[in-house]
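Supplementary Note 3. Input sequence used for the single-chain structure prediction.
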Amino acid sequence: MDFLSSLSTELRHIEADGLLRRRRVLECATSVRVVEDGREYLSFCSNDYLGLAGHPALVEALQHAAAQYGVGAGASHLVSGHGAAHHELETALAAFTGQPAALLFSTGYMANLAIVTALVGRDDEIFADKLNHASLNDAALLSRARFTRYPHLDLAALEQRLAASQARRKLVVTDAVFSMDGDIAPVPELLMLCERYDALLLLDDAHGFGVLGSGGRGVLEYFGVTSERIVYMATLGKAAGVFGAFVAGSATLVDYLLQRARPYIYTTAMPPSLAAVLSASLRLIDGEAWRRERLQALATTLKQGLNLRRWRLMPSTTPIQPVIIGGNDAVLAVSEALRQRGIWVPAIRPPTVPKGEARLRISLSAAHGLEDVALLAATLNELEKI
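The predicted structure, written as discrete structure tokens, is reproduced below.
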């Protein structure tokens, strides 16, 4: 049992470093007020940015869709699992994002693995921002392409690496909105570099889709850019409030992924009932701009209410508002102190963020009230003084 003993030893080291993670069990639907172990908390944890996860219209749409389509797809898309609801959603997503075509995936992690491993291989090179999501890093390693990382948002360093590359194919990959910092990638400038050095640009817009742009169409609308060089990926379990992910781009790109993307080919299709609900969610995202306006008002309230001296609110114009605390034990203590006061904000520690930059990751939702955010700010001000 030496193998298992070594795992136990490693777990003890993880706990000693303040890095042991534990799950909490919710006893209610996802909302800004949740119940765990019989106690209600004001939650700033969820990526349900638009407050759609429990929307009555989506619940009703799911009930109708389940009655019509059942609860499972039964097979992969390429066998017999691709139904009318999937087809309608892909068509709607392409139109919504202004792209020629779209392809559904079960998760954003799978979508990134699919895109990267299908498009590049041993003779190719990937250029990745150092703060990219783990799924993009794992995809790069699995692709067997040369994996070149550049300092966060450092366009000069990226250009230097692109200019030096002799790879057959070049792929620049980046988060559009960085999930732990809340900052936005400079997409127009990245696209210019990709055009200059004949590279494709993969944008992971998991945290921008539904939030950025006047119509919630994401980072491409936010910057007003379009190009056949762009491979656009977004998830559907955050602002859209449901589940899944999609890739959008040129018809050639989507056709190629359909033929070559192993995580697509060898996975049972998303339940068609969820695809039907997502079509309804798109209509809400498109038609209810007040939700995005509310997010901006909430962020302003938080920034105006915080009066921090030792801790630091990072600059962000998105619903992700991180407060840097520093050490692992310190951030855990602050998170627990908030919980004792009925407020739930997650403590984010390495390796998710750099060592010494442990933080509270405040996630705002359109379902929050201004008074909720004012309470959070006042409580943080109080705790910092202790």
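The chain has a mean pLDDT of 97. Residues 1 and 7 are 10 Å apart (CA to CA).
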